[in-house]
Amino acid sequence: MSIDSAISIAWDALKYVVAPIKRQFGYVISSKRHAQDLQKEVVELAHEVDRVHNVIEEARNNLRNVYSHVTECHASAKEALKEAQDLLSDFQEASKTCCNGTLPDPKCRYQFSKKAKAKIEVIQGLTYKCREFRELNDISFRNPAPGKVTSFASTSNKVRDNDIFESRDSVVQDIVDALADDSNSVVGVHGMGGVGKSTLLIDVERRIRKEKSFDCVAKADVSENQDIKKIQGEIAHALGLTDIKNEELVSVRAGLLYKRLENDAREKKRVLIILDNLWKGLDLKLVGIPCGHDNKIIRCKLLLTSRFQDVLRREMSSDRDFRLDELKEKEARSLFETTVGDKVHDDPFKSLVDEALRKCAGTSHSFSFAISILGELTYTLSSWLFVRRCSHDWQAKRATYS
To answer: Do 365 and 316 share a structural domain?
Structure first.
C-alpha cells in the first residue's frame, strides 16, 4: 500500500471520528445562538397561536363548528410554547448558577442546545400548520342547513305522534308521488280552514326526508298578509343561505335567493319549496324563486296549501291539487279522546261525548279543528256547558261555510 493511500484512509477515518466530536462540542459553544433561535421561533408561534385563537372565537360566536384537527393543532402549539418557555427559563437559571455566571457549564449548555434544536423543529412545524388557518372556512363549518335532507328515523304509517291518521296516509303518499313525477312542478293541497292542511305538510315532509326524494326542503308560512322578507328569510334559513341576513332590500335578497337556487339546479340538486297557507297568489319572482313570465316555477318544485282551489290552479298554476276533507268519525273520536284523556269514559262525561261529536261532525269545514278545541275544554263538568254552546254555534254556522 502506498503512503498516499494510507494517508487517505487515515484521513477518512479521522473525519468519521472527529465529525461527531465536533458536532457534540458545537452544542456547547453554540448554546447562546440556539437560545436566540428558539426565542425567535417562540415569538412567531405565539403570534400564530393568538391569531388562530381569535379566529376560533369568531367561529364559535357565529355558531360554527370548529374542525377537530384545528383545535388539536392549537392545543399542541400552546403546549409547545409552554415547553419552550420553560426550557429557556431553565437555561437562564442554570447559566446564572455556574460560578455566578462567569464560567459556562458545558454539560448544561450541551443538554440545552440539543433540546433547543429539537424544539425549534417542532415549533417551526406547528407555526407552518397554524398559518394554514386563515379564514373561518379554513377552521370551521356550519351545521347542515335545516332543509338539507339526511337520514330520517322511520315512523308509523298509521298514526304519528301528533295524531295523523290512516285516512291521511293515502293523501300523503299521493302528494309524494305527484312531486316525484317529472311532469309536475307545482302540487297543491286545498281544504277548509282547520281541516289539517298545515299538519299534513309535516307528514309529507317527514315522508320525503325518509325516502330522500329531494336533496333539500325549504318551508315558509305565507299567510293572509304576505311578508316577502319573512318568506325569503324562512326559505334562506332552510337552504343555509345566511348572507341574506345582511341585506335589507327585498330585491337584493331575492337576487341572492335566485342565485342560490340557480346554483343548486346546475349541480342537479333537487329542491322542494313548501309554501303554506296561501290566501292569494304569490309573486315568485319577487321572492327570488326562479319562474317564467306566467309565474310558473322552474328549476325546483313547489308544494302549496290554500283554502281556495282557484288560488292553486289559476294564480299559482298548479299541475296537481288534492282536496283534504275532514277526519272520519272513528278517527275524530280518537282525536277527541286523546285530547281529553280517560275522562271521556267516566260519568257524567260519557253520555255527552256522542252529542259533542255529532254536533261538531255537522260542521264539515273544521271537524278536526272543532273537536280538538272542544277536547281541550272538556276537563271539568262545568266546561261541558260551554262545549254544548260551542257545538250549537258551529252547527248554526254550517250554512255559512258549506
So the answer is: no
Specify whether 203 is located in the same domain as 289. yes
Residues 16 and 128 in one domain: yes
Residues 309 and 173 in one domain: yes
Q: Determine the pLDDT at residue 351.
A: 60
CATH of the domain at 232: 3.40.50.300
Task: Provide the grid cell at 350.
Answer: 260519557
Question: Among 106, 141, 176, where does a domain finish?
Answer: 141
Same domain, 187 and 279: yes
Shared domain for 308 and 376, answered yes or no, is no
- Asked if residue 270 is part of any domain, the answer here is yes
* Tens digits of residue pLDDT in 78-126: 999 999 999 888 877 776 655 555 445 666 777 778 888 889 999 999 9
Determine the structural domain holding residue 32 and report its residue range: 3-141
**pLDDT averaged over every residue in the chain:** 78
Name the grid cell of 144.
347542515
Q: Are 297 and 289 in contact (CB under 8 A)?
A: yes
Q: Which amino acid is at 89?
A: S
Burial of 145-171, coded b for 16+ CB within 10 Å and e otherwise, reads bebbbeeeeeeeeebbeebbbeebbeb
Whole-structure pTM value:
0.59
